[in-house]
Amino acid sequence: MHSLSPELQNKERTLLDDLRGRGRLLVAFSGGVDSSYLAWAARRALGDDCLAVTAVSPSYPASHRAMAEDIVRDFDIPHRFVSTHEMESVEYRRNAPDRCYHCKSELFSRMDDLLGELGFDALAYGINTDDRGDFRPGHRAAEEHQVLSPLLAAGLSKQEIRTLSQRAGLPCWNLPASACLASRLPYGTEVTAERLSQVDRGEGLLRDLGLRQVRLRHHGEIARIEIDPAECQGGISPELMRNIAKVIKPLGFKWVCLDLEGYRMGSLNEALSNEALSHEVLSHEALSHEALSHEALSNEALGNEALSNEALSNEALSNTGPGSQVRVDFGLPVLPSAK
After folding, report:
1. Whole-number CA gyration radius for the chain
2. Fewer CB under 10 Å: which end of the chain, C or N?
3. pLDDT tens across 173-204, in order?
């Protein structure tokens, strides 16, 4: 293994020094690359004054749980599983673009409870410098709960965390990037335990076929498969296509499609700008309709007013005798005062 660059060594020292000054620390730990390295670093810096906390819910992949269990066992990291109940939240299940906010709010609320129960001082999670580019409403929940982001504070990128994880011997150092299972459902598709289970089982079966960086995007009766283009440079054989359909259709899908753009992080976020544009167009259209309605109403009011004025003028004229004078101010008839 190549030695670490002085810059990367300095970033790791900065991280460890930061962690040592945080007191007793809870670490949100999923078994992924970032949270595993953060849990390892917290154990190294704080010893038994750290606790890795893993949230268990239908959105947590079985493969992540297996990796998390291996890491805490092999690296002697204090650890606890906790159940989270984001599925009970209507706001979470409706799967709007801020879904991740509601999920992370539930996680950090549960960890807040542990702070008091176990006498810990702070919470931390594994955001890195690369995470700032994608749409991630969960970060807002972290800010609201005052969750620390030590990897980000140390200026560590995803690749740097992989390098440090490999050096530390963490088995997840080269795992493909991943996220919770709900991220496979398009916004607006209700999050249900059944759909999450379909995705989890499907992606496991795809990995069993030898695919590494792969996603199963759930579009109702359609399963859209994203595969890392690097794994398809020689093309996809007819046999692999048949096998993909063979294992995915029995999960409850009528059609299985391959996304020709391949795997890319946050692909379901691509629709957000178009959705926002649609909302903007609709808002302008509504505003135009409203303006036209107001204009029509105004014209109608003016017409009624003119008719009323005309009627009033006629009434005034009919009520005045010979030699009476009618004074008109701004188009409104004013009858002469009685003498």
Report:
1. 32
2. C
3. 999 888 899 999 999 999 999 999 999 999 99
Q: What is the pLDDT of residue 84?
A: 97
Q: Which among 19, 28, 192 has a CA at the least distance from the CA of 110?
A: 28
Backbone angles phi, psi at 76, to 5 degrees: 55, 50
What secondary structure letter does DSSP report for 267?
Answer: G
Q: Nearest CA to 164 among 200, 210, 128, 116?
A: 128
pTM of the predicted structure, to 2 decimals: 0.77
- CA separation for the pair 159, 320 (Å, rounded): 95
Token couple for 13: 């020292």
Q: Which of 66, 26, 19, 81 is nearest to 178 (CA)?
A: 66
- DSSP E strand stretches across 162-221: 214-219
> What token pair was written down for 54?
């893993």
**Alpha helices of 259-325 — where are they, by DSSP H?**
270-319
- pLDDT tier at 292, thresholds 50, 70, 90: very low
Regarding the domain delimited by 6-180, which CATH topology (the fold level of the hierarchy) does it fall under?
A: Rossmann fold (3.40.50)
Fold entry, domain 192-265:
GMP Synthetase; Chain A, domain 3 (3.30.300)
Burial class (CB in 10 A: 0-12, 13-18, 19+), 314: exposed
User: 9-35: per-residue pLDDT in tens?
Assistant: 999 999 999 999 999 999 999 999 999
Closest residue by Cα to residue 266 from 167, 136, 130, 173: 136
